[in-house]
Amino acid sequence: SQELEQSPQSLIVQEGKNLTINCTSSKTLYGLYWYKQKYGEGLIFLMMLQKGGEEKSHEKITAKLDEKKQQSSLHITASQPSHAGIYLCGAVPNAGNNRKLIWGLGTSLAVNP
Amino acid sequence: KAGVTQTPRYLIKTRGQQVTLSCSPISGHRSVSWYQQTPGQGLQFLFEYFSETQRNKGNFPGRFSGRQFSNSRSEMNVSTLELGDSALYLCASSRAPGEVTQYFGPGTRLTVL
Question: Which member of A77, A97, B79, B87 lies 3.0 to 4.6 Å from B18 by CB, making a disulfide possible if both were Cys?
Answer without folding.
Answer: B79
